[in-house]
Amino acid sequence: MNAFTAETPRWYAVHTHSLQEERAAENLNAWGIETFAPKFKEPRVNPYTGKPVYFTRSLFPRYMFARFDAGRMLRKVWFTRGVSKVVGFGDGPVPVEDEIIDMIKSHVGPDGFVQFNEELLKPGDKVVVRDGPLADLVGVFERDVEDGARVLMLLTAISYQGHVTIDRQLLKKIS
User: Fold this and answer.
1) How far is CA 161 from CA 2, 128, 142, 157, in A?
2) In order along the chain (175 residues), what is the average pLDDT of each group of 10 residues?
3) What is the pLDDT of residue 110?
4) What is the pLDDT of residue 157?
5) What is the pLDDT of residue 105?
6) Which residues sit opposite 153 in a β-bridge?
């Protein structure tokens, strides 16, 4: 069966114009098309305060997913403001399997952002600080604090031991 004659809505990858994922999503939603443009929070450490600052980034820059009936809506999608093209090969667009979209959606947290570095830390796990003023220091994970975005760890150095509360994103479990 050709993708153009599909009667049920399928997911397709949509290539957008530069920095226009939001515009394309809004315009496609106005057509009644479901969209999914996964985003994540990129942490960066403020060099002066040592605190993490988060920037919203697109998981797939210039790409998003749209669920529509290609037989009826492909032409409208192609000419929607913000859309560059629908990804395809040869004679038409190629659908993205529902399982792939479901897998990506399963990593979206309650805040609407894709969650990374969600490895389970257990009390006693050895960790290293990835970035910031404490970069490369090794310690032991003790427990989550606040909403789970920050953790308490015991720093271990040659002649010093001390507790520090640090952003979970800055830690990496080591074996």
Assistant:
1) 65, 14, 13, 6
2) 64 94 95 94 79 84 95 93 92 91 89 74 80 78 71 69 73 75
3) 84
4) 62
5) 92
6) 141, 164
- For residue 103, the one-letter residue type is M
* Structure-block tokens of residue 95: 């659908």
Tokens 């990496």 found at: 172
Q: Return the number of other C-beta atoms located less than 10 Å from residue 161's C-beta.
A: 10
- The string of DSSP codes covering the chain is --GGG--S-EEEEEEESTT-HHHHHHHHHHTT-EEE--EEEEEEE-TTT--EEEEEEESSTTEEEEEE-HHHHHHHHHTSTTEEEE-EETTEE-EEPHHHHHHHHHTB-TTSSB----PPP-TT-EEEE-SSTTTT-EEEEEEEETTTTEEEEEEEETTEEEEEEEEGGGEEE--
- The full 3-state SS of 126-168, as one line of letters, equals EEEECCCCCCCCEEEEEEEECCCCEEEEEEEECCEEEEEEEEH
Report pLDDT for 149. Answer: 64
Residue found under tokens 């038409």: 92
Q: Residue 9 is encoded by which pair of tokens?
A: 């809505």
Pairing of strands 34-36, 150-157: unpaired
Angle 143-149-152 from CA coordinates, rounded to 5°: 30
